[in-house]
Design brief:
Length: 208
């Protein structure tokens, strides 16, 4: 199951620098649309470090991260057109994350690889009993719908913490630095949200 980031909760609010010196997203998308290879250079300049961080949090391999970025740019080139993303940053991050997760699964098939992905999913696993074996699409959709409702009801800071922890796989230390709060504050917020989500799912008749 993939948790999609709630609209308006882009990582820009805490991670990215000002866009000064970078092309606006619309112009970058227009470059892709016109099949101008400069689009990839501009994407790398603006979002390369950001996408690298997403990949590294999952697979912890510099070489694999570079390959993930190359695959992200190729996937973006092949997707635009026909797609014209409303949020280029969100579009790119989803591609990178999916590629990195696939790469992690390939590598972990033969050996265990330390990963923040494992840590964050194990935390969420205490709340969600979903283990990838559900066969009914309706059940998966029900969980996704409840998660989206849950996220919409959180305040802006908690939305940010939840999405960064469980979608972008940021560490508690990363989050404490981004928000300028203690690790204990972040940990307590995450624990509180997990408990609230557990109760929310139970009330909705979803097995937890």
């Amino acid at each position: 199951m993939i948790i999609q980031p709630y609209g308006g909760m882009e990582k820009t609010m805490a991670r990215n620098k000002t866009d000064s010196g970078y092309l606006p997203d619309k112009e970058i998308v227009d470059l892709y649309w016109s099949r101008d290879e400069k689009a990839i250079d501009e994407t790398d300049k603006k979002y390369g470090k950001y996408l690298y961080t997403i990949a590294y949090n999952i697979i912890h391999s510099r070489l694999d991260c570079e390959e993930c970025l190359n695959d992200t740019y190729l996937g973006t080139w092949n997707s635009i057109p026909p797609q014209r993303p409303g949020s280029l940053q969100g579009f790119l991050s989803r591609i990178t994350r999916n590629i990195a997760v696939d790469r992690y699964r390939e590598r972990s098939a033969s050996k265990r690889i330390p990963s923040e992905l494992v840590s964050s999913l194990e935390e969420l696993g205490d709340t969600l009993s979903y283990d990838g074996s559900l066969e009914e699409e309706a059940a998966v959709s029900a969980v996704a719908e409840e998660l989206n409702k849950f996220l919409r009801e959180l305040d802006e800071r908690d939305q940010f913490i939840f999405v960064c922890r469980y979608y972008y796989c940021d560490t508690i230390d990363d989050l404490s630095k981004m928000l300028s709060v203690s690790e204990r504050t972040v940990f307590r917020a995450i624990s509180k949200m997990r408990e609230e989500l557990r109760e929310r799912l139970k009330e909705g008749g979803i097995e937890v």
